[in-house]
Structure formats: structure tokens, C-alpha cells
Design goal:
With about 160 residues, the chain is an alpha+beta fold. Strands 1, 2, 3 and 4 form a 4-stranded antiparallel beta sheet that branches. The termini are far apart.
Length: about 160
């Protein structure tokens, strides 16, 4: 008797809620896709896209430094370091930094000759070397003029 009651309750269950759930999921999924695709959901209209475009670069200039060849010590694996770089400066400081470039070269030359040759040869030390050189350049030129140091050549021969 218990089995007969169980079979009757299983037969009475309708598949209507399942069909309604699937249809509702499809309608809501399609509506969400439409809202995202047309830009209604996240505001990606033509006006918003025009604001995403980058504007012209202003306030930045680059001052190239003369290439340097630095002799390394006798314990180094290489004999020479060929180094060249550019200094990223504020637009208004181009003349000042250009005028101070001999002093900048002197500071860089002194620093690169003084550090241990294993530090130069270690590939993972480039970020630390760059940060040290940038700080020395900023001290020479004064605060607020130099933004960054871009190393364009760092070759060990």
C-alpha cells in the first residue's frame, strides 16, 4: 500500500515548474546579454567610449644622455659595460636637466664604477640599479625635475 501511494505522488508531480524555470532563465539571460551588449547595463555608450580614449601627452620630455663605456674590475666576468639612457623630465625642466647632464654623467659613472661587478652581472638586480641611479640623478637635478630614468642600453662585453 505504501508503494502505491508513492507511485501516485510521483505521477501527480507536474513538469510545469521545471519548464517555467528554464524559460525564465532563458528570458533573463537573453535580457542580460542585450543590456550588456547595447551598453544599457554598464553605460558603454558612444559618449562614454570617447572619454576612454587617451588624450595627448603633455608635461613630459626626454633628455638623452651620452652613451658611456665603463671598465669593470679584473674579477668581473666581463671587461666593459656599455650604458646609455634617457631621463624623463617635466617639460619646464628640459633646459635645466640638459645643462646638468655632465654632472649626471659623472654621478652615473662614479656609481657604476663603485658597485660590485657581481651586482652588475646579476639580471635580477636591474631594478635596484635603476632605482639607485634615478635617486642620484634626482639629487643632482633637484626635486621635481626628473620623473624617471629609462635605460636604453645595458650591455656587458
Amino acid at each position: 500500500m505504501a508503494e502505491a501511494t508513492l507511485d501516485q505522488t510521483q505521477k501527480k508531480r507536474s513538469k510545469l515548474p521545471l519548464v517555467i524555470g528554464v524559460l525564465l532563465a532563458l528570458v533573463l539571460g537573453g535580457g542580460g546579454f542585450y543590456a550588456t551588449y547595447t551598453g544599457l547595463l554598464f553605460g558603454h555608450t558612444e559618449a562614454a567610449k570617447s572619454h576612454d580614449a587617451p588624450g595627448p601627452l603633455t608635461g613630459i620630455a626626454f633628455v638623452p644622455l651620452e652613451p658611456m663605456v665603463i671598465s669593470l674590475g679584473p674579477d668581473a666576468g666581463s671587461k666593459y659595460l656599455r650604458f646609455s639612457a634617457q631621463v624623463e623630465v617635466v617639460d619646464s625642466a628640459v633646459a635645466d636637466v640638459t645643462q646638468l647632464s655632465p654632472r649626471i654623467l659623472d654621478v652615473l659613472n662614479s656609481y657604476l664604477r663603485a658597485i660590485d661587478s657581481s651586482s652588475i652581472e646579476d639580471p635580477s638586480a636591474m631594478a635596484r640599479l635603476r632605482a639607485q641611479m634615478l635617486r642620484r640623478i634626482q639629487i643632482v637635478t633637484g626635486e621635481g625635475r626628473v620623473r624617471d630614468l629609462l635605460i636604453t642600453e645595458f650591455v656587458l662585453n
